[in-house]
Write a structure and sequence with these properties.
By secondary structure, the chain is an alpha/beta fold. The protein has 9 helices and 15 strands. It folds into 2 domains: about 120 residues, Copper Amine Oxidase, Chain A, domain 1; about 210 residues, Zn-dependent exopeptidases (Aminopeptidase), CATH 3.40.630.40. It has a 6-stranded mixed β-sheet with strand order 11-10-12-15-13-14, sandwiched between helices. Strands 3-4-5-6-7 form a 5-stranded antiparallel β-sheet. The chain is globular. Bound molecules: zinc ion (ZN).
Length: about 350
């Protein structure tokens, strides 16, 4: 197991302990964020972030690193990339250098940094015992055309493996489909919204024009004002969608899902180290993520358009290892929520 992932595992496990001790002090004397206005947006300084989250050290070079015994956060001026304990997050806005200060957008603080560093303080995160598993595509909708088979086959295969493992652990599982049938996106949303005390995990595999594209990426819904990945801002991006009710819980769930998937696939837990590229945790305006009112993530578990990666996805060991990682992630997320003691 790579040391950075081992550290992340430990950090997640010790999260509630660390922050439970921090919380009472904040209630007595609320921390003051100093906000800066820049190009119509609100920002906070990295120095302010260092103080709030008790980072003991901040170092400047080609990247800026904030560190304490539990966390390591690495950002770069002008870049949207943020590494938290080795896991890549694609922020909604780049880091700004202004008047000798480095600034991070307030949306990224509230919707990304805070829920990841303090999952126990997430609003609207409810205890749950139900997992809605959404196998992408199905029936006449084959999804990506893979080198060895269609996406709808692999998403269902992974969903079934996950279902069996979750049920064995005592979770209640709802499948949006459990056979090769077509289910519309609005139906998937409707099914998920029938279960207020649940989480939603959508399983997909990727495809790109370039056969070189590869790696694993995890999506949550774009916060208000943030566009779909890769396109410009549109007026409707400023409207709150149902998925925004649980923004913070969703990013915490995505963190567990994404980090565990990489941890399990890129180690020898299965029979192979699959060396999956970390493409990051990203924001998108997919229909299912926008419409669902419970914590929701969409995993793209590898590129079927890349021959080498399609072969990995095709192997049963890969599927079983990824399913185990996702089940572990559900446990980890649930533990973080329950330990907050508020719900
Ligand atoms: Zn898909």
């Amino acid at each position: 197991m790579p040391p950075r992932f081992q550290a992340f595992l430990l950090a997640i496990v010790s999260l509630s302990l660390v922050f439970t001790s921090v919380a009472p002090a904040q209630v007595k004397a609320p921390f003051q964020w100093s906000k800066f206005e820049y190009q119509g947006g609100s920002y906070v300084s990295l120095r302010n972030i260092k103080d709030f989250y008790y980072f003991s050290k901040m170092t400047f070079g080609s990247v800026i690193t904030l560190e304490n015994s539990s966390y390591k956060m690495v950002v770069k001026p002008g870049s949207k990339q943020c590494h938290l304990n080795g896991v890549l997050f694609v922020m909604s806005y780049p880091i700004v250098a202004k008047n000798g200060q480095y600034l991070l957008h307030y949306t990224d603080l509230v919707k990304l940094i805070d829920p990841v560093l303090r999952p126990a303080s997430i609003p609207n995160a409810k205890a749950f015992n139900t997992v809605v598993i959404d196998a992408g595509h199905g029936g006449r909708d084959s999804g990506a055309r893979g080198v060895f088979g269609p996406e709808k086959f692999y998403s269902l295969q992974l969903a079934k493996l996950m279902r069996d493992q979750l049920q064995a652990k005592g979770y209640r599982v709802v499948m949006t489909r459990s056979s090769d049938v077509y289910v519309s996106r609005s139906n998937r949303v409707a099914i998920a919204n029938r279960y207020p005390n649940a989480i939603f995990i959508s399983l997909h595999f990727n495809s790109a024009h370039s056969s070189a594209a590869k790696g694993l990426e995890t999506f949550t819904v774009s916060p208000v004002g943030v566009p779909h990945l890769g396109r410009g801002v549109r007026e409707r991006d400023f409207r709150k969608v149902p998925g925004n009710i649980v923004d913070s819980a969703s990013i915490a769930l995505a963190t567990a899902i994404h980090s565990r998937s990489l941890l399990y696939l890129n180690s020898s837990r299965g029979s192979t180290n699959y060396r999956m590229l970390d493409r990051g945790i990203k924001r998108a305006r997919f229909d299912v993520l926008q419409g669902i009112k419970i914590p929701a993530v969409l995993l793209e578990g590898g590129f079927l358009s890349n021959r080498e990666e399609a072969a990995k996805v095709h192997s049963f060991d890969f599927q079983r290892t990824l399913a185990s990682a996702l089940v572990k992630a559900v446990d980890v997320y649930r533990g973080a929520i329950l330990r907050s003691g508020q719900r």
